[in-house]
Amino acid sequence: MNRESQVSVTVIRRLPKYHRYLTELIEKGISRISSQELSVLTGFTASQIRQDLNNFGGFGQQGYGYNVEDLQKELGKILGLDTRYNAVVVGAGNLGQAIANYKGFEDAGFKVLSLFDRNPRVIGLKIRDIEIRDMEHIEEFIKEHNVEIGIITTPKDSAQQIADIYIRSGIKGIWNFAPTDLQVPDDIVVENVRLNESLFILSYFLKTKFDK
Amino acid sequence: MNRESQVSVTVIRRLPKYHRYLTELIEKGISRISSQELSVLTGFTASQIRQDLNNFGGFGQQGYGYNVEDLQKELGKILGLDTRYNAVVVGAGNLGQAIANYKGFEDAGFKVLSLFDRNPRVIGLKIRDIEIRDMEHIEEFIKEHNVEIGIITTPKDSAQQIADIYIRSGIKGIWNFAPTDLQVPDDIVVENVRLNESLFILSYFLKTKFDK
DNA sequence: AAATATGTGTCAATTTATTCACATGTATAG
DNA sequence: CTATACATGTGAATAAATTGACACATATTT
């Protein structure tokens, strides 16, 4: 087990936010920042920020703080943003197309090579320059193009079936938008985007705030 | 402050998953379940499930377990799924259109009345039966139609500006897809969907799993 | 109808996460 | 070149979350 894998998920989930603010600071031309200042930006405590960063190394300097550019670069490496991956999307509906068009993707090192669907009406269409192909050819496509990431934007009932195809084809990670928990072997990474759950949480806080 | 608002956010964020599995159990015609069985389904420990549910009341019965339908209904009430809200979307791009088409929405009690955009090329178009309108009319629309939820699916640079319009128009909650932290007064509820961050996390776990 | 099995609700124990506090090193001002 | 302010990294203290354990009530079996 490598060093990073014993850092708690709680800490990991805060890293993207640090990375985002550091990127904004670079854009503003700010080259130096203290944990105190980062605390104001992110809303985490300065102490927590120092603890978090120290899981990965001592990036700061006493009396100075952190060099923005260096720290951003380091966080990028920790998050694996320097590695490029090929991806495909199954489900060329609205959400699938939105994802294929999504710019933020490239920032994370992912490139969508193709969308797949079963609906003959969309097969052959192009989103930007990304073609929608027939599901029939997905397995060979994945193998031929060295695709490592599979994205699922279908309704929940077909999600597991698609995950199985992905696994069979040798994919390493799945980005799942379907509201279901996928069953996968230990060596496959799954990251879920739970739109429902997010909405439910919004609903909960609306209720508790206004329903007395 | 009411009872529910002192339940920790950590607990709240688990409720949608309970609700989802209970809904599936209802569909399968299962009427009774123990915390132990729910534990197998959800991956949370039985003890944790009992603790979580007990924050809101004793829904179970010793020697029997929980009545699936009752518990699902109770969780629905806790999450506020019995309340209906009108919503609008700003940003009629791919993501905005995907959201407007999204069925899971109605399950949470939200109804999208209209999309808004600045791009003259999309104004006037209809997504299902939802019209895309000019941003110019958004404030009066919100006030006239009793809209309580504002959704943001624009790039990050305009997100705060749109939030300000929402706030000025009297909206209560914002569902934000832009990768930025919105500044809002205390009485506005914001729920963020961080697609970037989710991707970064996927990237991180891919890296730590395969990069030794 | 009694005996046994089941399973909740809850309090206590443990583990994990966050905050505090400060010794130590570096930058900056005079 | 010295003095002062700054701000990290870290170990200890506190707080929060999770798990364990069991008394007690209900269901089920015989």
Could you please describe the fold and organization of this structure?
- Two copies of one chain form a homodimer.
- With 212 residues, chain A is α/β, with parallel strands linked by helices.
- Chain A folds into two domains: 76 residues, Arc Repressor Mutant, subunit A (Orthogonal Bundle); 113 residues, NAD(P)-binding Rossmann-like Domain (Rossmann fold), CATH 3.40.50.720.
- Chain A has ten helices and nine strands.
- Chain A has a seven-stranded mixed sheet.
- In chain A, helix 9 links the parallel strand 7 and strand 8.
- The longest helix of chain A is centred in the C-terminal third of the chain and has 16 residues.
- The radius of gyration of chain A is 20 Å and the shape is globular.
- At the A-B interface, helix 2, helix 6, helix 7 and helix 10 of A face helix 2, helix 6, helix 7 and helix 10 of B.
Considering the protein shown, what is the CATH homologous superfamily of the largest domain in chain A?
Answer: NAD(P)-binding Rossmann-like Domain
Mass-distribution shape of chain A: globular
Provide the β-strand percentage band of chain A: 15-25%
Largest interface: A-B, 60 and 60 residues
Radius of gyration of chain A: 20 Å
Distance between the termini of chain A: 50 Å
- Report the mean per-residue pLDDT of chain A as an integer: 95
What helical percentage do the residues of chain A reach? 40-55%
